[in-house]
Amino acid sequence: MLDGLNLINSLPLAALEVGQHWYWGIGNLKVHGQVIVVSWFVMGLLIIASLAATRKIEKIPSGMQNFMEYVLEFLRDLAKNQLGEKEYRPWLPFIGTLFLFIFVSNWSGALIPWKVLEIPEGELAAPTNDINTTVALALLTSLAYFYAGLSKKGLGYFAHYVEPIPVLLPIKILEDFTKPLSLSFRLFGNILADELVVAVLVFLVPLLIPLPLMALGLFTSAIQALVFATLAGAYIHEALEDTHEEEHG
């Protein structure tokens, strides 16, 4: 899933530009270098944490193993609440990866002073601060729920577009466009706004006032990761639920 994110993120999915960017040329493509760098940093943190937690498995967990088991239990509950006991297991890796990547990305932007590191153009920031990253995540979510429906029903999945009455076809098609738009712009807008507000206040009042806002930013960053993963699970559940209704109707 992370490889898919990097591939999609290298494509010009959105023309929206906020500030300057450090571009890498790959053939005819122009890639936002700062996004790739920080994305791999986030993935590196997740990989290191996973290896540290599984390096020496103990019957009575402690330390990093105990922490990661708590995280896994949280992700299991998150997926189970959206998809149900019977359906959540195949989708736990996808939903869990979405949550962890977004959560660590958001917190990296709030906790790590990326602006201290100089790059040729632009500045380093959380990957979710870039619209291309959030659009890529949203499109992966759309592909996931289409796959969920098609894997259960085959081409019969598309029958729900004209149920209960065919006149709903344009509305249901429009929903498929609005879902990724809503996911991507909500995440991008919240993270960008939070970082801009903190940056302005740090410039104006260097010490006292930004601290409570930074704490609030950490909380809202975690909520944004939870909202994105929850909605992804809900969309997948909708695709599977249509199948169940047709099977039991």
Tally of distinct domains: 1
Oligomeric form: single chain
Roughly how much helix do the residues carry, as a percent range? 55-70%
Shape: globular
Weakly predicted, low-confidence segments: 12-16, 243-249
- Number of helical segments? 7
Query: Radius of gyration, rounded?
Result: 20 Å
Kindly name the structural category: mainly alpha
Largest sheet: 2 strands, antiparallel
Task: Explain what you see.
Helix 2 (33-54) packs across helix 4 and helix 3 crosses helix 7 (210-248). Residues 12-16 and 243-249 have low confidence and may be disordered. The two termini are 35 Å apart. A hairpin with a 2-residue loop joins strand 1 (23-26) and strand 2 (29-32). By secondary structure, the chain is mainly alpha-helical. The longest helix is centred in the last third of the chain and has 39 residues, at 210-248. It has one domain (2-248). It has a two-stranded antiparallel ribbon. It has helices spanning 2-9, 33-54, 63-83, 88-111, 131-153, 169-204, 210-248, and strands spanning 23-26, 29-32. The protein is globular, with a radius of gyration of 20 Å. It is built from seven helices and two strands, in the order H-E-E-H-H-H-H-H-H. Helix content is 69%, strand content 3%.
